[in-house]
Amino acid sequence: MRLAIALLFGVSTVLFGQKADNVLVVVNQASPISRSIGEYYVLKRHIPLANVCRLSAKTSEEVTRADFLNQIVTPIASFLRSRRLQETILYIVTTSGVPLKIQGAMGPTGDAASVDSELTLLYSDMRGKPHEAAAIVPNPFFGKSDLPFRHADFPIYLVTRLTGYDFADVKGIIDRALLAKNRGKFVIDLKSGDTTPGNDWLREAAAALPKDRVVLDESSKVLTNETDVIGYAAWGSNDHDRKERHLGFQWLPGAIMTEYVSTNARTFARPPDTWTLGDWNNQKTWFAGAPQTLTADYIHEGVTGASGHVTEPFLHYTPRPNLVLPAYYHGRNLAESYYLAIPALSWMNVVVGDPLCSLGKP
Predict the structure, then answer these.
(1) Per residue in 201-235, pLDDT tens?
(2) Taking every pair of C-alpha atoms in the chain, what is the biggest distance, in angstroms?
(3) pLDDT at 4
(4) What single DSSP character describes residue 49?
(5) Which 8-state DSSP code applies to residue 15?
(6) Residues paired with residue 160 on neighbouring β-strands, in sequence order
(7) Which pLDDT value is given to residue 7?
(8) Residue 288 — left, alpha, or beta (φ > 0 → left; ψ -120 to 50 → alpha)?
(9) What DSSP line would sit under 53-103, residue for residue?
(10) H/E element holding 185?
(11) Which of 69, 98, 239, 360 has the most CB atoms lying inside 10 A of its own CB?
């Protein structure tokens, strides 16, 4: 009897919150692509129509703090209260056409941030005094790999975004999430000669995964053309040995990626096919204000989940691969895997993908 109870508890811990009823979909009525994504995701994931929050917001990627509060936060909070969904919702999904980032001063004491990272704090803001915008907020879920995500313990929402260069890219994310299986390899590529904690976290990620499922490289070689990839972590364009924009990987359905790059989610506008990685010292090589890799490229090439930053997050606040990859491998859904690896909220982080996507148990 005790064994049966223990097994039941273990199963409920794994499955807790992984339901369509726990997802709020945010659609910007002013954006045709936002409406299309919302309709497709709701249909494919069987999200209740009562869980679709429709905004009338600006469609620009960047908005002022006032516009964020008036056009995004206030309508979502009112919707949750009026539908009595505040407790039921665990995951908020934004869509292309919903603004991406908030204007403001940069740095740890500035008020610039990603829209999605600010929205994670809506749950606690609705229950008490709103958080200070000009400050990083520690993520209470960070590192809690062994605990189920629930509001009683973690007073936040987990916010992911369905976005890409176009509708076809987002449709791909949604379709691949439904086909995810626990197979394939985790490719982990270190930067040669680096002595920061970043390489240590990459090594720890490799050590936490089965050896026969890991490709680990510590040399100056940049791994390319890998096949059957289910997870990837590296330095992106911050690896001085990487020169090519595209890695040429074959991604399996459900594959996720993360990299230590400051501005990879700076835009989801598509650059010219001729654009490649550039140089900070030569603005002519930049796209959308930076020369760095783009999260959207990985989505376009076939990943199902991705992380990025709208501007400088500092290494310490990027997703920790030693947390996100093992959590995902062990069956956590996509949203929980990423957010338990992100140290801070009200910050620069963006998580792209279907929050309910899961590989299942190994």
Answers:
(1) 999 999 999 999 999 999 999 999 999 999 999 99
(2) 69
(3) 35
(4) G
(5) H
(6) 93
(7) 33
(8) left
(9) EEE----SSEE-HHHIIIIIIHHHHHHHHHTT-TTT--EEEEETTS--EE-
(10) strand 185-189
(11) 98
Q: Which two tokens stand for residue 134?
A: 């000009």
Single out the residue of 259, 342, 336, 345 nearest to residue 303, CA to CA.
259
How many H-runs (helices) and E-runs (strands) does the chain carry?
11, 15
Per this entry, what is the length of the chain?
Answer: 362
Query: CB of 350 within 8 A of CB of 293?
Result: no
Give the side-chain half-sphere CA count within 13 A for 173.
Answer: 33
- Give the whole-angstrom CA distance, residue 59 versus residue 217: 41
Q: Which tokens is 40 given?
A: 């497709």
Which pair of structure tokens corresponds to residue 361? Answer: 């148990």
Question: How do strand 251-259 and strand 229-234 relate by DSSP bridges?
Answer: parallel
Strands 229-234 and 91-95, sheet pairing:
unpaired
Task: Write out the two tokens for 164.
Answer: 């890409």
**Beta bridge partner(s), residue 188:** 216, 233
Q: How many CB atoms lie within 10 A of CB 165?
A: 17
Q: d(Cα 57, Cα 357) in Å, to the nearest integer?
A: 28
Q: Which stretches in the chain have pLDDT values below 50? A: 1-17
344 DSSP β-pair partners: 138
Provide the pLDDT for residue 140. Answer: 98
> CB-based contacts of 119: which residues, under 8 Å, 6+ apart?
72, 73, 76, 92, 94, 157, 159
Rg of the chain on CA atoms, in Å: 19
